[in-house]
Amino acid sequence: MTAKAALHRLLDAARDWHGALPSLRDFAPWPDDLTYVERAPNPLPVIAHLMADPGAASPASLPLRDALVGAAPYIEWRHTYTEAEVGRDFLDRYGWFELAGPYGHFTSQQCRLTAAYWGPNLNYGWHQHAPEEIYSVISGSALFKLDGEEDQRLTPEQTRLHGSNQPHAMDTGEQPVLTFVMWRGEGLGDDPRMSA
Q: How far apart are CA 11 and CA 107, in angstroms?
């Protein structure tokens, strides 16, 4: 399969996922300004971890999980944080990419669609960003923390909404977690920053 075919397959699976979850549909409509852009893959150590253990999926999330694993070698994987901020082990077992958005494999100015993977037993410290955000779990499980609200352990098909600049964090346990994330609002091209 070519990179373009794998990424279009992934986009189709993400669109179906968006359509299947009312919370995602209510958060933002599927963008109608998507344009494919050829981006060189950026292989990071996270790929091997994702492919070895993508986490348990539900019947509804399995097509997206499998499309993402299939596209993994073609993706422009990214790190937002430095080793000084999060440590080497975190960087080796974590990665994210922009499927659609200002700098995605598909450009869009309407919203930002990303996916990210964290290996087991990782702590994603308190961080924040201007755009509102909704996480959806594709596979695995994690404990989602949100400033001012109760912690929630999410499993496939469950979601968590984060307000603009609302600090949030996450811990994986014995399982990894694979997520699909949507952003809306100002600052779609910005990266998250660690909270003070």
A: 12
Calculate ∠ Cα 22-20-80, nearest 5°: 80
**Distance (Å, whole) CA 31 – CA 13:** 14
What one-letter code names the amino acid at 42? Answer: N
This model's pTM is above 0.70? yes
The total of other beta-carbon atoms located within 10 Å of residue 109's CB is 11
CA-based Rg of the chain, rounded to a whole angstrom?
15
Q: Which amino acid is at 111?
A: C
Q: How far apart are CA 3 and CA 104, in angstroms?
A: 14
Tokens of 12: 């189709």
Per-residue pLDDT for the chain (196 aa), expressed as one digit of tens each?
A: 899 999 999 999 999 999 999 999 999 999 999 999 999 999 999 999 999 999 999 999 999 999 999 999 999 999 999 999 999 999 999 999 999 999 999 999 999 999 999 999 999 989 999 999 999 999 999 999 998 899 999 999 999 999 999 999 999 999 999 999 999 999 998 888 888 7
SS3 for 113? strand
Question: Which among 89, 91, 68 is positioned nearest to 78, based on CA atoms?
Answer: 91
Q: What gap in Å lies between CA 144 and CA 152, rounded to an integer?
A: 5
